[in-house]
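hi!! sorry for the late reply, been swamped w classes. u asked for the two structures so here they r. pasted raw, havent cleaned anything up. first the sequence of the first protein and right below it the tokens
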Amino acid sequence: MQDKRCTLYNVIFPLWLVLFAPLFPLVYLPVLLVNLVIDAGVIGAALRLLKFSLPGGALRSYIFKAWLCGFLADFLGVAILFALADSSLMAPDSILTIWNNPTTVVLHLLTIALVGALIYLANRRLGTRAGLPAAVAHKVALAMGIITAPWVFLVPTSIVPFLN
């Protein structure tokens, strides 16, 4: 039986993986806090624009759960991109320079759309469970799905000096 080995040459992780990799533990806390502030800001602004409010405890619980669901969706997006990068669908160095290959750009955009849709679905469900009317929950979830989708997936790591 033949011995199958997988050798990886010059593997450089994408910038967005820094958010999830244990290589930079000091990055965790600021990233988590900034993400929480962004999620709270989007939910708060959407509710203000819709002239609707939730009691303090329900709002905090909704924001915290939305924040956790957003991270889970982002992890899924990272896993999808790694699976695609390992497949024959993407060019070998496409993770580093996504804008050099149209197929890679389309796959990244589809992954971002999928993650955004998952964020929308999770937030719509969380919003209705928190006591928001269905129409309000839909609009808040739509704002969360669009604004907090992982747009940073489009940043090529080739422009980051310390990753090259």
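now the second protein. again sequence first, tokens right under
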Amino acid sequence: ESELLPGHEKEGSFSGVDSTLQDWHGPTAMPSPIQNWDGINNGSNSIRPPDTQGDVGLNHYIQWVNLRFQIWNKTGTSLYGPAQGNTLWSGFGGKCQTTNDGDPVTLYDHLADRWVMMQFALGTVGDGTSDLICIAVSQTADPLGSWYRYAYTWPNTYLPDYPKIGLWPDGYYLTVNQFNDAGTAWRGAGVAAFQRSAMLTGAAASAQYFNGYSYNSAYGGMLPADWEGATAPPSGAPIPFVEWDDSAWIGPSDALRIWNFHVDWTTPANSYFGTAGSPFVPTYTLNTANVDPTLCGASPACINQPGTSVNLDDLADRLMHRFQYRNFGAYQTLVSNHTVDTNSPAGRAGIHWFELRDTGGGWAINQQG
């Protein structure tokens, strides 16, 4: 996957200590962990630093780290794996079966009580053939059972790097950072929607795609919202997509940009990303505190940790998956975060977080720190 996105090595005007720095602790203590066990080790994965991610369901926890995934019950008993990611596509044919390229996402669909697993299939980078997004949806709540498998050709022979997926009632939604087939030239943000209702039954499932490179090549590092909680979004509401931009990348201020993605599965011409009739024009631009995202410069693995010389990778130029959505009835919320340099002293990492709310008049920043 890419480290810093093109242009993101620059930082806008910034001096002094981060104005959002919190140097005190609230009165409520963090609850103790309910369960704690070792996940996939790097002897199985062989990539450093690893891309650690997973999700929890009613009865299982699944972790997929780069090239391997493993399934546990919720008391920590391993039920399957670690196994190669492309095991999910055994017998499926094509690059989803024959390649195991990683950059995975594990998603629990709480509405359907299903599991969604995704990785890309690149084959030989620069070979001129199209890359694939490989998606598997469990046929039941049991991830040890059978799966519906899908392979989607990514358009324009672009390389779909850093794919991230989110749940919405009418689809599974995806963001990628696009490069040319060789991975050497930036091709902007790409977004897609997959027909969730069909995928849950194993039927042929449509996909819709918008190419940000055709409209504004500066955008990148987007995330789709991911719905949590029992209360659904308002009926027919488009799903929000978001990215954070430093003023040096897209001026004039540090800002969150939000795009509404509306999909019409019956009449695709009615679908839009951003503003209807003006693709990729942000629906909202929300100025944030001025922060410094150039924590590690061009060498992102700079955050040390005790007991090892292996550093953590900050990926400070983008928000971290997931971009969580919840509907509380009287208002809706979106929360996310990214790593920044607090400059207290310089090189000290901090988590810059946001809570956005929509009380009926559109999205606004409710709090950040």
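hope this helps!! also noticed smth abt the second:
The mean pLDDT is 92.
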